[in-house]
Amino acid sequence: MENTFSIRLLEERDLGQVAQLFDAYRQFYEQPSDLELAQRYISERQQQRQSVILVAANGNAQLAGFCQLYPTFCSLEAKPVYVLYDLFVAPQARGQGIASKLMSAAAVQARTAGMVRLDLSTAKTNLPAQALYTAQGWKRDNEFYTYSLGVKLD
Length: 154
Prior knowledge:
Radius of gyration: 16 Å
Structural class: alpha+beta
Number of strands: 5
Distance between the termini: 44 Å
């Protein structure tokens, strides 16, 4: 891949490539490959305007990475926030600062959209990502635990 990447908002022409990256992202987190599910999920989020996706593209419109932001609210601050839920750079494009550029662009996008902050979580074992977050000024929350409850829908 070409080494010069720009960060921009997802365009309709990018959906196929982002779906492939999203499928690889899910596999990184030990989910089975399912390109059809990835395509459907990304398309639905965009059609329903439920997320904002930033992509790293080279001059040939080849994508090397993406991050996905979900708008939500902080009840305590009574303000809107983004959750940076997905961040992925293709293995062959790593080491070029793409993840850092995506995260910086996410912060700009959040400010532009009137969000008061960005939140994220990552696997405890994902040390490279944690190093990146710390280097970019993110603070680890040592006050709150995160819990989940699976709810099976009929």
